[in-house]
Amino acid sequence: MNKIKVISIFGTRPEAIKMAPLVKKLEENENIVSKVCVTAQHRQMLDQVLNLFNIVPDYDLNIMKNKQTLTSITTSVLEGLDSVFEKENPDIILVHGDTTTTFAGALAAFYKKIKVGHVEAGLRTFNKYFPYPEEMNRKLTGTMADLHFAPTEGSKSNLLNEGIKEGVFVTGNTVIDAMKYTVEDNYIFNNEELNNIDYKNKKVVMVTAHRRENWGEGIENICKSLKKIVTENKDVEIVYLVHLNPTVKDVVYNYLDGLDRVHLLPPLDTKETHNLMNKSYMIMTDSGGLQEEAPHLGKPVLVLRNVTERPEAVEAGTVKLVGTEIENIVKNANELLNDKEVYNLMSRSINPYGDGKACERILNSILYHFGYLKEKCEDFKILKNN
Fold first, then answer.
1. Strands 147-150 and 115-119
2. Is 98 considered catalytic here?
3. pLDDT tens, 223-260?
4. Helices 43-52 and 13-28 sit at what angle, rounded to 10 degrees?
5. Does the annotation mark 211 as catalytic?
6. Is 257 assigned a catalytic role?
7. Is 134 assigned a catalytic role?
8. One of 212, 220, 335, 379 is an active-site residue; which one?
9. What is the set of domains in the chain, with CATH numbers?
10. Most-buried pick from 16, 265, 308, 332 (CB within 10 A)?
């Protein structure tokens, strides 16, 4: 049998983190010809992950430009991939999650009648503008995909309810696989300010907040809440990883710059972020990925959004939706900071997102689809934290 040619396509840091261990797994298999194409939708943050995992792309579209729009990203990816597909003629392409690169990559493959594998398929909020544009990116990608690698049973159910009956595999989330490469017990940060924090005697709260739907009043309320939390809790240190977008950065610095026990830092690379999370007491975020990563480390998460496409963690009790109203954020944060029973309940809850074998399941699902394996691999089942 001929080898299966697979092109993995990604363009942002979150995609790269979750696709990197899969790329490594594909490279190991003798039945796979693995190629990597990055769009560089996010240039600098993408390169950090490529360097960490020692991945050298076969193709780099390098599309990022100042003040890029969703339209310009989409058209640049479509045009760039057209020539890549003409040259490589892959059997299947893999895209991840819900970025504009994901949607445009799937569309470009569809135009060439190339099969599409969607990693992290089936996540839904059922509101096309929350998160925007991610909800429609992943939904539209799902309509074009041939293989759907759903991280959880809930994601699979969403796909089944949309009429997608074939090619659905429950794999767990590849981010758990990635954390095997990144988290170290006695980690020393490259950022000296982080090394000087007393993680044993202080309750370190790691914060990220940058989603479009929170721009404006949402980010302002989050900042006001953090100021109140650090003022009321003298044993708390806040580390806010501030997104580089001025729409976010200017607001955050206006409210929090210079406050005692508040550290405003630029986004960290993947390894630094994972290890900061591991040393922190709790996480506050509007990110999607951190909702998956933190439970693996036993860290409670307060989600600064009103809806989430990752309900499994809410149901399991590892994360809690608190929205962006000041009173609700402060109330829930103070409860975790001061009530050990509430904290333990969240930190020791079920980890619903993976066992570190998601990439192996995805590889085997591809081999099964193309006839290299006779039996479909078993779906991922939820495990408890160690």
1. parallel
2. yes
3. 999 999 999 999 999 999 999 889 899 999 999 999 99
4. 30
5. no
6. no
7. yes
8. 212
9. 4-173+354-384 (3.40.50.2000), 192-351 (3.40.50.2000)
10. 16
